[in-house]
């Protein structure tokens, strides 16, 4: 009967990460016997890191990131996401391994350009490259970059996605949608150049380094945060859900307090995208009992931060906007996927 029910539910999946229902049924359930005894950083859809090695005082943490796209600096975005994920667990990244898969029609020059970008950012961030590989693969239409990053943390500094507590404030660091905006510019630069002045797009390009927020999280880690959650695929709405779901708590946040740059709003309007569901590496949610103190501490370091709400007991996840109350939905597919779908439809 169980197998018949599963066959009845079997259907094709949307682009992006799978739903929580699919993850629990087809991923977590299948490895249940293999994860017994793992208490901290336990595998879940909300937890992005895992313990790779452990000594009496220090822990080596790892994380994996896979991104698809046509940008020559796609690897930079993957590395930023990995570095930020490690930093959110209290670890400092020290090295990566990278694997690049290219469609069979890609030229060697694309591979070389991608590796140059990866090499330069690793040198800038003090990261060693332990392993690098590249393949030309049948059946894919865009490049795929997979990055595994390793970092080290002291045991007493370790945080998990489920560490957030009820009754504390939620601080948003930096701006939502920045990563997605930069990647849209790379995919749709010609179309945007027809609508915006060169200075507009160049100003955004100058913001690329903002996708690395390890410094902000290092500061926060010294100032009493309960949990930190980088905002990645699915945007801030997905991140809020994941943070609350992982900790088993509720939340109440105000939409108008979520910081978003005007450039992101205008780029999203061109393609009818929702910036609140747009991948946002560089932006971070922080949960702390001292929101105002943390906000001012970060601002003194030149890091934008705003209190957007608070965590609550129970499971209600509320968003206030325009004087109206609504409940946070389960994570939706990232809006960036629509850009690739548009390109596929044009090329079909």
UniProtKB/TrEMBL annotation:
Residues 166-318 form the PurM-like C-terminal domain. It comes from the Bacteria. One of its GO terms (biological process) is protein maturation. Pfam families: AIRS_C. InterPro entries: HypE, PurM-like_C_dom, PurM-like_C_sf, PurM-like_N_sf. PANTHER family: HYDROGENASE EXPRESSION_FORMATION PROTEIN HYPE (PTHR30303:SF4), HYDROGENASE ISOENZYMES FORMATION PROTEIN HYPE (PTHR30303). This is PurM-like C-terminal domain-containing protein.
């Amino acid at each position: 009967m169980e197998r018949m029910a599963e066959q009845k539910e079997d259907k094709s999946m949307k682009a992006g990460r799978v739903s929580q229902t699919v993850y629990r049924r087809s991923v977590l359930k299948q490895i249940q016997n293999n994860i017994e005894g793992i208490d901290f950083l336990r595998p879940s859809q909300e937890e992005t890191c895992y313990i790779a090695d452990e000594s009496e005082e220090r822990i080596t943490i790892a994380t994996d990131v896979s991104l698809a796209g046509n940008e020559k600096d796609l690897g930079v975005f993957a590395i930023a996401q990995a570095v930020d994920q490690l930093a959110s667990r209290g670890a400092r990244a020290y090295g990566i391994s990278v694997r690049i898969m290219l469609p069979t029609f890609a030229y060697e020059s694309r591979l070389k350009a991608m590796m140059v970008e990866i090499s330069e950012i690793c040198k800038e961030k003090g990261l060693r490259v332990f392993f690098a590989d590249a393949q030309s693969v049948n059946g894919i239409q865009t490049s795929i970059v997979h990055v595994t990053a390793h970092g080290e943390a002291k045991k007493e500094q370790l945080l998990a996605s489920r560490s957030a507590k009820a009754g504390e404030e939620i601080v948003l660091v930096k701006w939502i949608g920045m990563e997605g905006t930069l990647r849209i510019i790379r995919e749709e630069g010609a179309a945007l150049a027809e609508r915006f002045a060169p200075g507009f797009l160049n100003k955004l390009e100058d913001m690329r380094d903002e996708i690395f927020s390890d410094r902000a999280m290092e500061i926060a880690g010294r100032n009493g945060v309960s949990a930190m959650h980088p905002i990645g695929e699915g945007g801030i709405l997905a991140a809020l859900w994941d943070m609350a779901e992982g900790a088993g708590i509720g939340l109440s946040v105000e939409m108008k307090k979520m910081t978003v740059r005007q450039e992101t709003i205008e780029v999203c309007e061109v393609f009818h995208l929702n910036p609140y569901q747009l991948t946002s590496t560089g932006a971070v949610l922080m949960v702390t009992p001292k929101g105002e103190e943390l906000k001012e501490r970060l601002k003194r370091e030149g890091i934008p931060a705003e209190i957007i709400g608070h965590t609550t007991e129970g499971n209600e996840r509320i968003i206030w906007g325009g004087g109206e109350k609504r409940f946070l939905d389960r994570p939706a597919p990232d809006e960036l996927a629509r850009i690739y779908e548009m390109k596929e439809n044009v090329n079909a």
